Amino acid sequence: MKRYCPLIHCCATPLGRIVLCVVIFCCRAVVAPGADELETKVVAAAGPYFVGLPVAVQVTAAGVSDRQEPEITVIADDDEGEERDDLRWNLIAKNPTYMRFNNNGRIVSQSKYDFVFRFTAKKAGTLKIGPFEITDGSYKQRVDPIELTFEEVPTTENMRIFLRLPDGPYFPDQRVPVEIEWWYAGELSNTSVSISSDLFDTFTFEDEQPSKVRQALLPIDTEDGSVDLQATVREEARDGKRFRVFTARRTMIPDRIGTYSIDPIEVVIRRQIVGQRRSSDSFGFGIFDQVETYVKGIEAFRALGEPLKITIGGFPDDGKPASFIGAVGQGFSIDVAADRTVVRVGDPIRLNIRLRGDGNLQNARLPSLSADGGLDPQDFRLPEGDVAGELGEGEKSFSVSVRVENESVSEIPSIAYSWFDTDAKEYRTTRSDPIALRVMPAQVTGADDVVSAAANPTKSTPSLNQEMSPTKPSGPSDRAMSMLLNDAELAIQTDPSLLLRATGKGASSMTVQTVSYAVGVAMIVLAWVDNRRSRQDPLVKQDQKLIKQQQALIADAASKPKKQGASQIASALRVLLTIDGDDCRDETESLISRCDAIAYQPLEQQGDAIPSDIVQQASDLANLFLDRKTSERK
Q: What is the DSSP letter of 599?
């Protein structure tokens, strides 16, 4: 039995065939534009073409979908599947053109892209440029190559090229100055120049941006494109010729170890040969004849430098400090500042660290703060892992937080930073100045401080108002508070039967409440009287006397040498903080840090006297402390 097929039955009639064609046409109309074959074209700039001189090649793709940007790649394998070494190229431009048109009543959006490449031949002969592959979403299309013939460029005595580096070996992350010098004794008009070297494609380079006022630009051809270097120009007479000498500099930053053979640097110059011809006027009288300039031809010349051998060595293990983490250069320095210098055990201290030096600061890292006799992990809680830095003008800054773990700590020790001196070929270490520190015990209230007196009648409850400072004597207010808390039941009762039990017999509930309110009011009155008395406590007078002594020391510091005066003011401010410094602690600690920085400077950096603004600010703070104590007596 034959099976019934609707499609075959439909095609068997003329009307069915017409319907089928319409369906197929509609299906093709709804296919995404990127699925249709692209219209492509490859065009090269006008020749002749020379080895070492880049050639502009444009690949055009029309009919590209406008929903995403297409990509293009050059298939780098030759006919035998090996990677090509006869050409160097890079994509220098991608220029889109958007189009919208009516396709049988449907608005279609398409794009055309012009991809512009620079191809440079490394040898003479006929070479294939391409093939190319264009990717538009999931659709890919191959573009056939074109063939160009490149001519060998003759050398000339009118041109010289030099590539100069300092004596090696070099080290990773070192900033190596490289000098390019081009000599030319010819006409520069109607010429184009290209300088290339394998060195520029082997390592990383850092270049200064050309200034607005410049003498000349020297073009360097690399795999990533052309780099214009600012050059100086001078004239030199050599071998009976007068040369113009162009000198440019780059900074090489090696990033791997090994020995590298570098082919000679090459410069190629292409010059148009210009001619003139007379064109007759249309009247034939010769009166209106014109002289026009035209290009008769193109000639090219080249010059080669000397081959180089470059060695990038590893850092020696002998004598390598623990604070060395790869810094290379000369003259590094490290400065450390603390946001506070009077702390309790466990308080955070923010350290602001600034690193300066003649080296690659962009890749500079911060060594461990404990390296080479730095911060002892037994005394400080140190950060873990790498600390991110911020690159500034000639410096790199880091911000880290540490915590003091030991009350016996009296300073933040100097932090070490080491680098490898490429001139002396040895390690060097610099250290920051230590920062004086005052550490008080941590103020901790544990569960043992709240106990029932009945449970331990022989143990007296310590005063909750006890000061941390050992120099501050206990006053009458402390003794009064101790008497109030002695034999007090501070335990928390949770037994419901005890909390809800009725009052004792022999007294009514109203009587008990009245007596309780009366006792409460009496205690409030006694507390108010005791507070008035505490305001006139001799301890306040003693604090006032102590503040006045510090005022005298601050005033006397103005006449002392700079280092001694700064140390004396810092000591006076620390005493003031032990009295009462909660409201102005930040300002006082900031001034103490300034004084400590002066006190720990080398002797050769000292001046005659401490700056007057420091003395004035310290005096103002002392007056503020005294005013607060005076207000307490009122």
A: H
Ordered alpha helix ranges (H), 367-508 = 476-485, 496-499
What angle (nearest 5°) sits at the alpha carbon of residue 148, between those of residues 147 and 151?
150
Tokens of 392: 């500034």
Rounded-to-integer distance, Cα 316 and Cα 420, Å: 10
The DSSP result for 471-518, as a single string, is: TS---HHHHHHHHHHTT-B-PPP--HHHHSPPPPTTS-HHHHHHHHHH
What parts of the chain have a pLDDT lower than 70?
1-36, 66-67, 77-82, 99-110, 210-215, 279-289, 443-510, 512, 529-539, 580-582, 600-607, 632-634
- Tell which residue, 264, 266, 231, has the closest CA to residue 51: 266
Residues 6+ apart with CB under 8 A from 213: none
Rounded (to 5) percent helix, strand, coil in the chain: 25, 40, 35
Cα-Cα-Cα-Cα torsion 543, 549, 551, 553, nearest 10 degrees, comes to: -140
CB 384 within 8 A of CB 402: no
β-partners of residue 184 are 159, 244
Render 185-218 in DSSP notation, one character per residue.
-S--TTEEEEEE-THHHHSEEE-PPPPSS-SEEE
User: In 3D, which of 433, 434, 441 has the Cα closest to residue 342?
Assistant: 441
Q: Are 538 and 475 in contact (CB under 8 A)?
A: yes
